[in-house]
Design brief:
single chain; about 260 residues; mainly alpha; two-stranded antiparallel ribbon
């Protein structure tokens, strides 16, 4: 096998040499038939390794042990693809192909580690900024909510109507006291009132009716059920006959609640 005249870092000249060698029918072998498939295998396997590592150690979608096993399984395929690429690139020179394979694998591993560390640091920085912004917003909201609200200032219009409001309140108080103090059989009535306020004179007449309920005596009297002739006290049995379940008539309820003479 003829040895290459160029080093691996001389990419342009080396690539042209490999291309000329592959198209020369007098020389044995076809290096492009090894170089191209090996490069594709290496790139596809490296992409899968990066994807598995991202899903395992960054997103958390895969379990750590499963991700580690997948990376270990894919690594030999990546190394094999790199070796095939290097073997065709170095024109079937095995020592130089092994050295180039080691260099590519080492550089790739270092690049993957550097990118992973940078991604991890950027994720932590974004998380810290978002948490600090959230805490700042919450503190600003709490401070704004803790500020006392300004009390509305009284207007001149409310001051002018203050006398009318005071007069209405006094009339309502007198009306409620007179209705509470008066008693009768069924209803109590109150007459009209005149209100004089700061805004003018206003005459208002109202008629208030209030039903007065008689007080229940402390010891209600027993009554006799008109349906089953059972004697019972309506209040104690919720105005229902304990024997037949009939409702107590209203006149019997009043008779039971009449005070003893």
């Amino acid at each position: 096998m003829p040895e290459s005249e160029y080093r691996a870092r001389q990419v342009r000249a080396k690539t042209h040499e490999v291309f000329e060698y592959d198209h020369d029918d007098e020389k044995p072998g076809k290096p492009l038939h090894i170089l191209i498939p090996g490069g594709l295998i290496a790139l596809a396997t490296l992409a899968l390794i990066i994807f598995v590592a991202y899903q395992t150690w960054f997103e958390g979608n895969l379990a750590e042990n499963i991700g580690t096993i997948l990376v270990i399984i894919l690594s030999p395929f990546y190394v094999g693809g790199v070796f095939l690429f290097s073997y065709g690139y170095e024109l079937y020179n095995i020592p130089r192909a092994l050295r180039l394979t080691a260099i590519i694998v080492f550089v790739t591993l270092a690049a993957v580690v550097i990118v992973a560390v940078l991604f991890f640091l950027m994720g932590n920085m974004k998380g810290g900024k978002s948490s600090s912004s959230k805490s700042g917003k919450s503190s600003s909201k709490s401070s704004s909510s803790s500020k006392p609200s300004a009390s509305p200032k009284p207007s001149a219009k409310s001051g002018s109507n203050l006398g009318g409001i005071i007069g209405a309140a006094g009339a309502a108080a007198n009306k409620s006291s007179s209705s509470n103090s008066s008693s009768g059989d069924g209803f109590s009535r109150s007459g009209g009132h005149v209100f004089i306020g700061g805004g003018g004179t206003r005459v208002e007449t109202r008629e208030v009716t209030k039903e007065v309920v008689k007080e229940v005596p402390k010891e209600p009297m027993p009554i006799t059920c008109p349906f089953c002739s059972r004697s019972y006290i309506p209040v104690e049995h919720k105005f229902i006959c304990p024997s037949c379940g009939a409702a107590t008539p209203r006149e019997l309820i009043e008779e039971s609640q009449e005070p003893k003479e």
